[in-house]
Amino acid sequence: MKKAALFLLIAFCAKPVFAHHAFAAEFDAKKPIKLRGTVTKMEWINPHAWIHIDVKKPDGAVDEWMIEAGTPNTLLRRGFTKDSLKAGTEVIVDGYQSKDGSLRANGRDITLPDGKTLFLGSSAPDAPDKQ
Fold first, then answer.
1. 103 assigned to some structural domain
2. Per residue in 4-15, is it b (16+ CB within 10 Å) or e — as a string?
């Protein structure tokens, strides 16, 4: 009985770990991108925060991108606050394109209008905390 209870405890505790994805499962480190756009929304949710930006293409059309960032806790420790990225803020995002070609990216850095660059908590192999 004790072994069965222990097994169930381990199985329930391990489930969130399996649900979390690795960088390489969704994003391509060989497809770096640089996007200049306007923040439309910031989602402070676990396990990753999301930054939504509108990027104007050369033809004038606008693409709506979703940028995956680190955890809210990671962003707070890196200098973000909930007021850092208000809707309407012009930003430059360096990151990595999603493997499926959708308008999603894993963000590495974001540059704010004042020139300040903040690390987005990327899990990419060359991220600053990985080196």
1. yes
2. eeeeeeeeeeee
Q: What is the pLDDT of residue 15?
A: 41
Q: Does residue 63 lie in a domain region? A: yes
Residue range(s) defining the domain that contains residue 72: 26-130
pLDDT at 23: 79
Tokens of 110: 């974001």
Amino acid at position 30, single letter: K
3-state secondary structure 75-110: HHHCCCCCCCCCCCCEEEEEEEEECCCCCEEEEEEE
The residue behind tokens 């979390």 is 20
Q: Given 3-state DSSP classes, what are the helix, strand and coil percentages for the chain, each rounded to the nearest 5?
A: 25, 40, 35
Measured in whole angstroms, the distance separating CA 5 from the mean position of its chain's CA atoms is: 37
Mean pLDDT by 10 residues, the chain (131 residues): 51 44 82 96 91 97 96 87 90 95 94 92 61 42
CATH number of 94's domain: 2.40.50.140
The pLDDT score that the predictor gives to residue 83 is 83
Q: What is the total count of domains within the chain? A: 1
